[in-house]
Amino acid sequence: MATEPLHRLRSEVLALSEADRAELAHELLQSLDAPRDNDVEDAWDREITLRINEIEQGQAELIDRAEFRRRLQAKIESA
Predict the structure, then answer these.
(1) Backbone dihedral region of 36: left (phi > 0), alpha (psi from -120 to 50 degrees) or beta?
(2) Cβ(14)–Cβ(21) under 8 Å?
(3) How far apart, in Å, are the Cα atoms of 13 and each of 4, 6, 8, 22, 26?
């Protein structure tokens, strides 16, 4: 249940320009995110680079969306 200060703040925020509301929304969402984990981001960068290289070298099995969905559905049904 929202408190009176929250109701008042919400009214004030909704009176802001669209650009100001967007900036505030962005900052509020960022405040909810966990701290940045550089090790995880570095690991993802390495994994993405590896996968791109595999595709470029013809080492990856590429499938179309329909096949991907079929395989995914089969896994779901067998679980």
Answers:
(1) beta
(2) yes
(3) 14, 10, 9, 10, 13
Claim: this prediction has a pTM higher than 0.90: no
Alpha-carbon distances, residue 19 vs 7, 24, 27, 28, 72 (angstroms): 21, 9, 12, 14, 41
13: CB partners within 8 A, 6+ apart: 21, 24
* Cα 66 to Cα 51: distance, rounded to the nearest angstrom: 21
Determine the pLDDT at residue 37: 84
Q: What is the pLDDT of residues 22-68, one digit of tens each?
A: 999 999 998 898 787 889 989 999 999 999 999 999 999 999 999 99
Q: Which of 64, 68, 28 is nearest to 76 (CA)?
A: 68
